[in-house]
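[job 0412] stage=complex_fold ligand=fe (ii) ion status=START
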Amino acid sequence: MVLVDIHCHILPGIDDGSKDWQTSMKLAKDAVKDGITHAVMTPHTLNGRYLNHKEDVIRLTDNFQKMLDEAKIPLTVFPGQEVRISGDLPQALDDDDILFLDEDGRYMLLEFPSDDVPAYSKDMIFQVMQRSITPIIVHPERNSRILKNPSILQGLIEQGCLVQITASSYVGTFGKEIEEMSRKFIEAGQCACFASDAHDLPKRDYEYSEALQKLSNEFGSEKAQEYRDNAQAIVNGDNVQLNWQPLTTKKKKKFWLF
Ligand SMILES: [Fe+2]
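[job 0412] stage=complex_fold status=DONE, emitting structure tokens
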């Protein structure tokens, strides 16, 4: 069965992910063990620390595919990028230096700083959408500003963005608060799919299948299938739509009433 991972850092030596080819091959084996059949290589770019040019990512991904084929590791890899929101983004798009998740350039992973959603985000997303690009917001459940004010995500979805939650977040690897936030976004239909966001980090394993199993247990097998289908549709450049609602805010119990 096809399982697509739209976000991981397993290309060697170009960002905070895999450090060398040996690690990349190990991570690829881990991905396959977790059930992943296709993965988009999404090193960071425009984030102030890492600037990975499109042609370098394509070349490295081609090399990786050759090595995977030689080692008979059944993983198909595609070149992509995790694009940090930045004033430099329009220029990078003009320069044809941005990679998308699909060949037609419809879907783009969009990352915020981990502690902020910058004030210019709305305007930048508008500019990006005017180019017929749909940003996919990566792991909002790990953004400290969104954790404090989860309704921020709604505004981004209203603008037309899609959302990807990190599989490990939903299974609890980053703690209860992030796990709960993930569940709330999922429950409200505000997430399209999971991704591994795999790095070579201690205590950071592939947990994509575990997340899908948990999703199936909590929200039904149709939901898990929908997440699989959405990830596949994204790399194919097909339509993906969120059927979402606003987050429900818990009313405080009034203990003094009977
Ligand atoms: Fe990432």
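The chain has a mean pLDDT of 95.
[job 0412] exit 0
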